[in-house]
């Protein structure tokens, strides 16, 4: 007798019907089991376990050796969506192969790409993102996600069966690691709609990404995991079901660090109603989470319909991955694809095309070079970051250059001895404890990773000093792990001595009674150490540089030190010791090339360098790619996707998310950057001619002719920007609207076109809560970067004129502000503003008060206070109304009516808070009887 398969196993049935069939067959306990990262099997229905969350940011990560591509910021610097699609496809293949080998360890829901716009380069996770421009981010993220998901490059939509299920990280307004679980990102409506949301829109709307992960932070006072925008915006964009997965341990923060709810059943119920479908909590121990969800159901905080909706989203992704089909297109993928020759070649291509030539006086490409000196801490090593796979092999800068010519090398670090009052410090030759009082001083190499973070390597063992429990040992290959335990700060002490302070724990290095170095809590117990330099790194670098035809200084960051997940940077400056090596090499040999390798912009102090080349950490093929670019086998194709500022002092506060008010990113920055957004030199030159712009209905058409005016083939990234020249609001100085990468031989020309829908010129009108295209003149500009714009032309747009506003005036939808914070109007929805100081204000421009005689403010304060309405000026303008604000609870905003006298016509209206801690949600006007 042949058993008939249930309807949910019929691939020809509509997805909605298949999901509904499963849900009807599941008990409530089984449905709840689908709401955790580790979804429980339902053996009676033949449904296996499922796990969300395989990391694949720039290749398969955390699951052993796999092809390691350049970091995400490096992939982005190629400005090549096709390349990112191919890298995503390769990473997706390796995820599938690993899944077939170990289904429990490698799930098909991948947590990539990261689409947070890179607003501030000090963000510890800068290397995970693509660009400070949200549109460019969306283009590149869509390409990478389509590759991960199995779409062909020319497909209009997602494939019938997904290869993997890409997840966008991290929603929303997340660019700080400092107190990331407790800080709230102030997000005015224009910044939300014009800057933050667009990065998410295209990947979701196109179907390339089928899942989203909320971020750890709060946004306008409400935890991002509870954001109403999940349902109101993200799911409205999605062409199908959108899975929403929590970040690791974030659900527990709702009652813990964030204290937003009193009980976990209450918090988890709110999360599910807000749109969260999968709880990443307590690793693979789902019992507690499911117990809290069951309690929420029993307490009436959730309904079974709520559970069905969340479970349905989880099931939809599993159906789309082909889990319940007889076969999928990916069943034959084996682990032979992992680090296969094709993927190694792709890693090399991606690394080569990601290099950005920042400066060049003609030294590059290298010619007639027989001997190079490779200098610096990064010259003969490759770094893995937190989201890397394990490098299957490593072609370093030294190795890559040694294949082309004679390459001499030194790390250019100081070799030192450490001596305490009771004797010298030595390392156990077996990698064990460090001790004081040895007969002979041990030798240590000192690595400066910037920001005051140092690592020490024992010369005896070749291993780095670390902390095992509280004892100092020397047994590690370098800084590593989630909690890096191999870095120290050096604090000055009397008579030229120093104390070592362990960065991870904050403890000092002291000595036990037996002389073993160990951690102590009290600074007074720290051992005072004399550090004597036995061999100078800068002197050695200078000597080798002087003897070589060319000096190549490879400098940069360690991805796990002085800026990473959980740790923001305080400075953009290169590590001082590395900076000194550059200076020494340049003085010894004028033919010095600086090769920067970092996940973020850097600054250095040595001027007049003949050539500077940058890349992100480039993966396993870095050295081959570097040699190909340095020797001119390939034109440097990369272009910056971030502004490189001259100093961190040009940046606003790390927690200031209002890029418009703070003049941040290339769109609003008014200074002269070290290197602008879009910058990157070629080994040839390009000319721009014949820019033509016309408006045809609802589309702006532009074309320009680009010519290779130099002697060799080259690659140009033609960039189009616009600027609205008249507006009701502050407009960007320039905004990227399109780009095209062209490859041209000497003397070759090509016409590059732009087709820009007029609707893309819209800005968010806070007065009416929608996008608006204004009637205004615009300027279209084309060139090599955001500031190297070769040609421009004007055009006029016949759009709307924003009329005066009559209200209600929502406090969060103001035109300008001073000393206020955005807060949640209620736990579930809405934004309000709260005063941070006496005299704080918000401005509403052009408010029509014709015929208005009454005014009602909805406000509250735990201490009470006063709000004054002033016309034209926040200090001295006429004050037709004042609102005495009563003492209230946090969300208990009271309606406070007052009469208005002697007002008429259109005015700029300032709402002035006379006290700190007053919350306002809305002001409404009316006419008396």
TrEMBL record:
Keywords: Hydrolase, Signal. The keyword Hydrolase applies. Residues 802-927 form the Cellulose binding type IV domain. Residues 716-786 form the Fibronectin type III-like domain. InterPro entries: Actin-crosslinking, BXL, CBM6, Cellulose-bd_IV, Fn3-like, Galactose-bd-like_sf, GH, Glyco_hydro_3_C. GO terms for molecular function: hydrolase activity. CDD domains: beta-trefoil_FSCN_BglX-like, CBM6_xylanase-like. It comes from the Bacteria. Belongs to the glycosyl hydrolase 3 family. This is Glycoside hydrolase family 3 C-terminal domain-containing protein. It comes from Nonomuraea salmonea.
